[in-house]
Design a protein that fits this description.
139 residues, alpha+beta, 3 helices, 4-stranded antiparallel sheet, Nuclear Transport Factor 2, Chain: A, 24% strand
Length: 139
C-alpha cells in the first residue's frame, strides 16, 4: 500500500519525474496526518458524495456529562477513520483528560500504518477537540 494519496504521488512525480522506488515512511505519516486533520474538521453532510464523511457537529454535545460524550466521540472518531482512512489498521481511540482543561477534550489515537504488503508501522496521534468543535492532530 502506498504512503501518499494518489494525487500526492502524481504531484511528487511531476516535480521529480525520474524518482521512483522505495519511499520514506515519514511521507506516509504526514499524508495520513493531513488527511485525518481534514476529515476530522469536515462536518458530516457537507460532502455530497458521502453523507457520513467527516465528524458530526461536536458543539452539540452535552457539557455536563463529559465521560459519556467522550465515549461517544471515541466511537465516532474510530468509525470514521476505519471507513475513510484505509492506510491505518488496528485503530483505537482513548479519551485522555488533562487536569485543569475544561474547554478541550484530548484523545490518543493508536494504530498501525500499512508500510508495505506485510509490514506495518505503529502510529500514535494526539487529537484535541476544542470547545468550538475544531480538531487538531499531531504526532
Amino acid at each position: 500500500m502506498n504512503e501518499e494519496t494518489l494525487l500526492e504521488r502524481i504531484r511528487h512525480l511531476e516535480v521529480n519525474p525520474g524518482e521512483r522506488g522505495p519511499r520514506d515512511i515519514s511521507l506516509g505519516l504526514e499524508s495520513v496526518l493531513r488527511h485525518l486533520q481534514k476529515m476530522m474538521n469536515t462536518r458530516q453532510g457537507s460532502v455530497p458524495i458521502a453523507n457520513d464523511y467527516g465528524m458530526p457537529d461536536m458543539t452539540n454535545f452535552a457539557g455536563e456529562n463529559l465521560n459519556a460524550s467522550a465515549s461517544e466521540l471515541e466511537h465516532m472518531i474510530k468509525a470514521v477513520i476505519q471507513k475513510y482512512e484505509p492506510r491505518l489498521i488496528r485503530v483505537n481511540v482513548h479519551f485522555e483528560p488533562k487536569a485543569g482543561e475544561t474547554s478541550t477534550m484530548r484523545f490518543r489515537l493508536e494504530g498501525a500504518m500499512m508500510a508495505d504488503r506485510d509490514k506495518t508501522t505503529p502510529v500514535i496521534f494526539e487529537t484535541v477537540v476544542t470547545a468550538e468543535g475544531m480538531v487538531h492532530m499531531e504526532r
